[in-house]
Protein 1
Amino acid sequence: TQLLEQSPQFLSIQEGENLTVYCNSSSVFSSLQWYRQEPGEGPVLLVTVVTGGEVKKLKRLTFQFGDARKDSSLHITAAQPGDTGLYLCAGKLGTDKLIFGTGTRLQVFP
Amino acid sequence: GAVVSQHPSRVICKSGTSVKIECRSLDFQATTMFWYRQFPKQSLMLMATSNEGSKATYEQGVEKDKFLINHASLTLSTLTVTSAHPEDSSFYICSARDTYEQFFGPGTRLTVL
């Protein structure tokens, strides 16, 4: 059973469009992280959110942690081909395990 | 940021052989290291958590006798896939944690023929 479900699973858009990726769970996490992974490489951390309701911005990326710390969203404004990749949310259970979501594969066409 | 390395980056082996993958934290000491497995077009699945000097804790469904983990020092953890079979072919990623953050290695692509 996957604790963290991401939607959509796949997303193909044109350059300049906006998009939102969702990460949902029935579990409460002490923190939640978003990663981007390129083929054949390890995941790279984008952001960590800790407080329920927290919103963080990283250039064109906006991350939000749900009030109950069970869900999160990633919004990308004016997507670019360089944003192409696998986006993974990951929730921390307690102080130890980091559990990854099912992943969202994004393709941005020029 | 902190750097985690893995060796080898790619390995191809025959069915029935054992393969060892090394994970090193290059510029920090990691009391805890994690091993993940990622099948094509899927997410990362946690296999086990290892603490320096103690036995690894395996996730449900992961065979501890098949995936041997040794965390002998604060900068090195090894994963040995014993008697590898084609279904063990996967992308294996390690992660090392310092006090506050978890850092990921570049992964090792294992192909079992």
Protein 2
Amino acid sequence: EVQLVESGGGLVQPGGSLKLSCAASGFTFSGSAVHWVRQASGKGLEWVGRIRNKANSFATAYAASVKGRFSISRDDSKNTAYLQMNSLKTEDTAVYYCTSPAGGSGWYFNYWGRGTLVTVSS
Amino acid sequence: QSVLTQPPSVSGAPGQRVTISCTGSSSNIGAGYDVHWYQLIPGTAPKLLIYGNTNRPSGVPDRFSGSKSGASASLAITGLQAEDEADYYCQSYDSSLSHWVFGGGTKLTVL
């Protein structure tokens, strides 16, 4: 069974940092890209960024709203991806989902985690 | 504002048919990028419903179907059931932004 499990969410003050983890199982994690998508309360889904696999040089890409503040990394030996969030703003408050297009064309997301809540507030 | 436009809400009685539209532009759906659909139920992981405009993953009932024309796409749900009550999102890729984009989501209420 495929599983993606996010962790690391919580309450953080504006300007602070937080690192989310995404633990994967049930599929070939090392061969797959990993994306992060977020959903603020009452809002729609927003793509945050992605990291490709080793064959694609672990290339990353980010939405303009987080570029320069967020970074994505991965440790294939642990089947885990990370989202490092710095200089957090109140508008970053959201549920953060880890997702992967594994097994598909790469243009859509086959597998999703249940998300982890990040609250940025003083 | 979301790059792809969806109606905020739709509703229907059990057994009825509803459709959810998704309108894009010449840099995403209109550029030929496929549309995909997801179902979100609070407290659960989002679920892929339709990929590549019209394809259903294994396990998705054939009550769900997708279509695409020009810069728009639609999700149709026939034989509405109470368990279909959820939020539905369309998704594509935008060449101007160089990243994946979603619609604003549509809340389906089964009356």
Protein 3
Amino acid sequence: AQSVTQLGSHVSVSEGALVLLRCNYSSSVPPYLFWYVQYPNQGLQLLLKYTTGATLVKGINGFEAEFKKSETSFHLTKPSAHMSDAAEYFCAVCLDNQGGKLIFGQGTELSVKP
Amino acid sequence: ETGVTQTPRHLVMGMTNKKSLKCEQHLGHNAMYWYKQSAKKPLELMFVYNFKEQTENNSVPSRFSPECPNSSHLFLHLHTLQPEDSALYLCASSQDRRDNGYTFGSGTRLTVV
């Protein structure tokens, strides 16, 4: 069965520090992977996605993620956190055999301290 | 207007009321979804519609009744809700392709009193 696991429901970093949000997946087919961000009382917004090709993908707001097949991981990083990065982040994997259905992780809440 | 639009943004209703949530997408997508997001809980997929046909119902109580009159509009009709139904209700749409992902609306914050 396909699934997504986000390690840590809450991550806290200082402003200017590295942001690392972890995501591991299990899939029986080559995965398509996504990261979404959700600000308070808003919907989810696509940050970046991996489909095929280059394994390091860049997204909006300075975020990037690297697909590592050997580790079945798709961790999200940003070199220097801003206060505005405080939000909930969701990793998702696409099920190949159901026409694009996404399976979401549990979410990781990112706090940024001044 | 482009994207996925949800109305109303906020709704307070009594347990005996009947109300409806509306979702509209202008992206030409063929699949639409309702999600429930409660505090401190993962996203819960409620319903999936593909080309106006319901393809998934994840054991949602009958007090939630979806309606999809066409590929651009999705409704969630609510009646005799419980306080535990208070949550953020999110609508999403997709093109039914693996590489597209979903486009989400801003949600309706529902409070049942």
Protein 4
Amino acid sequence: DGGITQSPKYLFRKEGQNVTLSCEQNLNHDAMYWYRQDPGQGLRLIYYSQIVNDFQKGDIAEGYSVSREKKESFPLTVTSAQKNPTAFYLCASSTAGTSGRAHQETQYFGPGTRLLVL
Amino acid sequence: GQQLNQSPQSMFIQEGEDVSMNCTSSSIFNTWLWYKQDPGEGPVLLIALYKAGELTSNGRLTAQFGITRKDSFLNISASIPSDVGIYFCAGRIQGAQKLVFGQGTRLTINP
């Protein structure tokens, strides 16, 4: 089945620890995104990538890092610099990328990873 | 910062009632997307709109791309218990690369 997978479902972080959230898609989408969701809030963009080996900061990139070495994968690292990491993290992908079809973008989301601080 | 106003923030209705929610902005959009999110899950795309005035249905759900290109509406007819959840609008402002999201409408249904 085509889709977006995120792992793990739940992740616990200790003080001062870096943790990495996985996101994989087999939809052949060019663009991938990471969002953070806090209770009762909308989605805030952390990082996005429109093509392999390239990515841009979103609205709340501080304390996070990403890589895009493969089209299918866009892992997010929550670093120790992120002082309030407890949240629900959502990965998404879309066909927008650099194909010139941005006006027809449709983003699809993964199931999410809930990060909790010990 | 927040560029989409989604209302209402929450709704409490009886099963069988119709539901209406909307998103408005001062900016012009060229894409509107409507999602539903269940607790602890990722948002699921319901309807995508790409043209001003476009009216699209998905079962009991109908969404419209406002003619001014600054708003969008989602209607749910004859609500059922599985409609419970949070509904988000998202849109792409003309000329922008990223989507912006509304803060969601939480729908609760009394059986």
